[in-house]
């Protein structure tokens, strides 16, 4: 059974990359996404391959492995591949369905079309990324200070 438009919007709203998007912008992203039903064992992303889509899990479970080792099992509302929408770099992990799984998939081409027709999304994504980088930098600085304090001769 397909997810309702409201459920699809709620899933996209939970994605950190889209947290500053307006309702209108989320509607546009939702319209660009495709809902798919997948069987167990379906490979959604493969480590080392160039990313061409972003996935939000509607229902089911997806195993994430790196170098053959399981690093996570993701369930409903989890998402992956968001960075590929922006940089198109190779995947850092393989994602494979464990159960019958329903996902929302947004291809890079569809995402780029959204950015072309609604440039306001671009600016909001940049703002979110800048905020994330600042938070990472602040955490790194705090850890660096703790490390220096721990190494101070007594």
Write up this protein.
With 154 residues, this protein is α+β, with helices and mostly antiparallel strands. The protein has a single domain (5-151), classed as Jelly Rolls (Sandwich), CATH 2.60.120. It is 44% helix and 25% strand. It contains 5 helices and 8 strands, in the order ααββββββαββαα. The protein has helices at 5-13, 23-32, 82-87, 108-117, 120-151; strands at residues 34-38, 43-45, 53-59, 62-66, 69-74, 79-80, 94-97, 101-107. It has a 4-stranded antiparallel sheet. It has a 4-stranded antiparallel sheet with strand order 2-7-4-5, with no helix packed on it. The longest helix has 32 residues, at 120-151.
Write the topology of this structure.
Elements: H1 5-13, H2 23-32, E1 34-38, E2 43-45, E3 53-59, E4 62-66, E5 69-74, E6 79-80, H3 82-87, E7 94-97, E8 101-107, H4 108-117, H5 120-151
Helix pairs in contact: 1-2
Describe this structure in a few short sentences.
The protein has 154 residues and is an alpha+beta fold. The protein contains five helices and eight strands, in the order ααββββββαββαα. The mean pLDDT is 88.
- What class would the helix/strand composition place it in? alpha+beta
Low-confidence stretches: none
Please state the average pLDDT score. 88
Side-by-side strand order of the widest sheet: 1-8-3-6
The fraction of residues in strands falls at 25-35%
**Overall geometry:** globular
Count of alpha and pi helical runs? 5
Q: What level of helicity do the residues show?
A: 40-55%
Taken in chain order, the helices and strands follow as: HHEEEEEEHEEHH
How far the N terminus sits from the C terminus, by CA atoms, comes to 66 Å
State the name of the first-level CATH class.
Mainly Beta
**How would a textbook summarize the main sheet?**
4 strands, antiparallel
């Amino acid at each position: 059974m397909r997810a309702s438009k409201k459920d699809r919007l709620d899933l996209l709203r939970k994605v950190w990359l889209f947290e500053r998007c307006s309702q209108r912008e989320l509607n546009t992203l939702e319209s660009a996404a495709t809902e798919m039903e997948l069987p167990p064992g379906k490979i959604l992303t493969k480590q080392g391959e160039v990313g061409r889509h972003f996935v939000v899990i509607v229902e089911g479970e997806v195993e994430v492995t790196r170098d053959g080792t399981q690093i996570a099992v993701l369930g409903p509302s989890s998402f992956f591949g968001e960075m590929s929408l922006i940089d198109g770099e190779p995947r850092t992990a393989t994602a494979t369905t464990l159960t019958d799984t329903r996902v929302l998939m947004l291809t890079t081409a569809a995402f780029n079309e959204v950015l072309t027709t609604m440039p306001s999304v671009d600016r909001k994504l940049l703002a979110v990324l800048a905020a994330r980088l600042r938070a990472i930098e602040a955490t790194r600085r705090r850890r660096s200070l703790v490390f220096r304090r721990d190494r101070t001769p007594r």
